[in-house]
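Why does residue order matter? Because the sequence determines the fold. Keep that principle in mind as you read this record.
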Amino acid sequence: MYKRLSILFLICFYAYQIQAQTNGTLSVSVTTSSTGGSYSPRNILAIWVEDGSGKFVKTLLAYANTRKTHLNTWEASTTAAGSAFNSIDAITSATQSSHGTRNCSWNGTDYNGKLVPDGTYKIWMELTDKNSTGNVAPVTFIKSPNVQKLTPAAVPSFSSVSMNWNSSVTGIPSEMTRSNTIVVYPNPGTGQFIVLGENIKSLKVTDLSGKIIFTSKTPVFDLSGQPEAIYLVAIKTDRGTVVQKIIRK
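Structure:
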C-alpha cells in the first residue's frame, strides 16, 4: 500500500512539475484577402493571442499605423489588458498596399516576457480595408508538450491558414523520461486535460459507474461540460492499456 501511495504521489508531483513548463514555437501563416472595403487592396492586419478566458496575452503581428483604430477587436483586447495596441516583440509594419501570405510566430510568452501556463489559447486574426471593423477570425490552440499541426478552414479574408507548434518540455525528471509513465495533467483540473506519454493510440474517459464520457485518438480531452467528480481515463498504448484516475474540480 505504501509503495502504491508513493508512486501516486510521484506521478502527481511530476504532473505538477510539467504543468506550465512547456516552451516552444508556434509558427503562424495565413493568406489574406479583401473585405470589400473602399480602401482595398490596401489593408491593415493584426494577429494576437488571448488565453482561455479571453484575456490578451501577446500581439504577434501588427500591420497598421495611423489607421490601427479600425482594428476594433484587437484594440478592445489590448485596452482591456491596460496596454492599448500593445505590440511588444511583434512584427510591425505600416498599412499594406496589397494582400499576400503573412507569417509570424509565438514563443509561448506574454507581452511581459513571462512563459504562460499550458492550456487553451486563441490566435486571433483581424483585417480591415475600410474605416470600420472588417473580418475577424479566432483559432483555438492548446499549448502543451505535444507537437501540433493545425490547418483551419478558410474564412472571409483568411485562407491557407496553418499553425504549427513545436514544443520542448523543460523540467521533466530524468527518471520519468526513461520510464513508461503516463501522466494526465493538470490533475485536478477544471476542464482541459492532456495526456503525456509515449505511443498513445487512443483514450476513453468514463465516470465511476462505467458510463463513457469521451473517446479520442488524440491526447487532449475536455471535461468542462461535465460535473465536478472523479473520472477514469483508460489510455491505450502499444504496451497495453493504462487507467488513470482524474479529478474534475
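The first strand starts at residue 22 and ends at 32.
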